[in-house]
Here is the input.
Amino acid sequence: MRTDTALPAPAADAAHPNASVRLTVAALLLVMLLSALDQTIVSTALPTIVGELGGLDQLSWVVTAYLLSSTVVLPLYGKLGDLYGRKIVLQAAIVLFLLGSAFCGVAQNMTQLIVLRALQGFGGGGLMVITMAAIGDLIPPDQRGRYQGMFGGVYGLATVIGPLLGGFLVEHLSWRWIFYINLPLGIAALGVIGVAFRPHTTHVKHRIDYLGAVFLALALTCLVLFTSEGGTLLPWSSAQLWLTLVLGVVAVGGFIYEERLAAEPLMPLHLFRHRTFVLFSLIGFVVGIALFGSVTFIPLYLQVVKGSTPSEAGTQLLPMMAGMIATSIASGRLITRIGKYRMFPIAGTAIGGVAMALLSTLSLDTPLERIYLYMALLGCGLGMVMPVITLAVQNTVEFRHMGVATSGTTLFRSIGGSIGVATFGALFSNGLQSRLASTLPPDAELPPALGPAAVHQLPDAIRHAYLEAFAGSLHVVYLIAAIVIAIAFVIAWRVEDVPLRKRG
Here is the structure.
């Protein structure tokens, strides 16, 4: 058997990092920025993309395709990083991500864009998980909270820059530039990683659990198809729909069976006997459903209902991003100082749940100042939860399982995100169609490519009916998101503080 493990850096490197460690951390921060920027830069462009390519009912798939493909490969990247070394795997992920970005920029219709977003996700899945695992190689757990806070802050910074940059590019160039902009940043990241990242590794023989990866991909794809197509593209009575679910369940069983037999399983089943791993994976899964499934619609609401331009919609997301940055950095520093982390997911999920409930009250005349307050609360809650998930799991698992444990928690959060986007997208589209059918005059016709500009050019009566239906459909999305995140709040109370280790 061949394994590739990185030796943990001495504790002194974390307390007094030398130039090599500082440069490596800077390189990993750049990769994190690349990963996070792509997720957020798309949000303000979605209405414009729909206006040009059509397919409002497929809007959620522009996000879902990326999340699904990146989710499928997460545990594979974690294992490959453990076996071959973080550096070479990270470089390969960046190259694949950049290829996907370039192809997305030339997509000619919604189907092409969705397929190419999936290709981009195959590379993007490795960026975040390998970056977070690499920090586990370099920094001992008792100092890691400070660094996880920094990475959470960079993620928050990208969520600020992304919508702003996306809005600017859409208005002044084209939505295609939201993908092209990844190319110079990615090339810079490749250069810095090549020079700065010097992990200490040893190589022995190995085996990769490809069959497990196939079962996992099949299970996730079937689950997302079931949640996204049920009640929209296919009626709930459709035999094809339920056959998809059965196939997904069979694939889950096949994955579990394969993991029991594999010499080097993709997701070692003994991790599920780990209390901290299980609880934080569940929290990440539930928060992922609520976060990705609901935040996707905020820029859409601002542009369609409030008449904001893409640039304005990006600027209007600043309160949420500021809250996320502030609490992410502050919680990381507090965890390092006090050595306890249990209180943060409890408080964060409580605040996030309240924010989602408040967002479910949005209407056509809700003042922007009130929306800013709700978004700031949501950002504060998310910033208190996200960094703790990785920190707590890395603090408790054996060092040789650092990569797969890190990818495992990220996997469950991304699975939640994929299900959330698909489910909430289906709920929104179905709700909008049913409300329009009951409120629009029988002879009213809507253009097939209905972007924000086209909505505001509709006749007054039809436009008002459309906006009322749009806002009403969002109520259901955010109300369900609030209920979902309340589940994470209940789970968070079962978390126990484990003393932070001095070494990895």
